[in-house]
Amino acid sequence: MFEFFVELNWAAVLQIIMIDILLGGDNAVVIALACRNLPAKQRLQGVMWGTAGAIILRVILIAFAVTLLNIPFLKAIGGLLLLWIGVKLMLPDADAHDNVKPADKLWTAIKTIIIADLVMSVDNVIAIAGAAQGAADHHQMPLIIFGLIVSIPLIVWGSQLVLKLLDRFPIIVMAGAALLGWIAGGLLVTDKGVVPYMPFDPEVAHYAAAVLGAAFVVVVGLILKKRQTARQVGAASK
């Protein structure tokens, strides 16, 4: 057991926790919306059971994703999706939770949380599976489960604090988006279908692609954010 923790890729663990915090804000909002009409005594039960079900479901989805990323060209596709997810992270959608209705029964609330989390987990699953690729094969699933477990209290109980920090320090969101771009770049050039055609040393190509991916997400995200703000200002002035 001690040897496992010594050999564990702690950088990947930190990446998974950061990804969960940044992309878990939506999950915290869904939990709050689904449970707000429950009796006070059942709210904590709804939060705990709904979160537990959502986490178990996500581990299963990530297990499939990690396996699928070993198929040629699927890792490259995952990298492209992750670039888009990173850009989208810098452009939060305020209307994303309009379809989540509060429930007045415990089981209904739990079901709502699990279903909503399933629908919203695509970005989280791809990002975590990508981060896990940096670890040894036999460490990937334990690392994913460990990262998710550590992130649960941060999302459930610390969600309001995290959201306030993100509002106060936007640089955290930018850093998270850059991290997703970094992981995406690494996925693109380490794909089994792409590696044979790489003209550069694999390690050099990996870091170069990671830096370019991070830069791409930040630059494109800032440009689109500026355009979005300009449109909103223009619409408000009419």
Automatic annotation (TrEMBL):
Pfam families: TerC. Its main location: membrane. The chain crosses the membrane at residues 12-35, 47-67, 139-157, 169-189, 204-224. It is found in: Membrane. One of its GO terms (cellular component) is membrane. The keyword Iron does not apply. It is a multi-pass membrane protein. Keywords: Membrane, Transmembrane, Transmembrane helix. The keyword Transmembrane applies. Belongs to the TerC family. NCBIfam families: R_switched_YjbE. This is Membrane protein. The lineage of its organism: Bacteria, Pseudomonadati, Pseudomonadota, Betaproteobacteria, Burkholderiales.
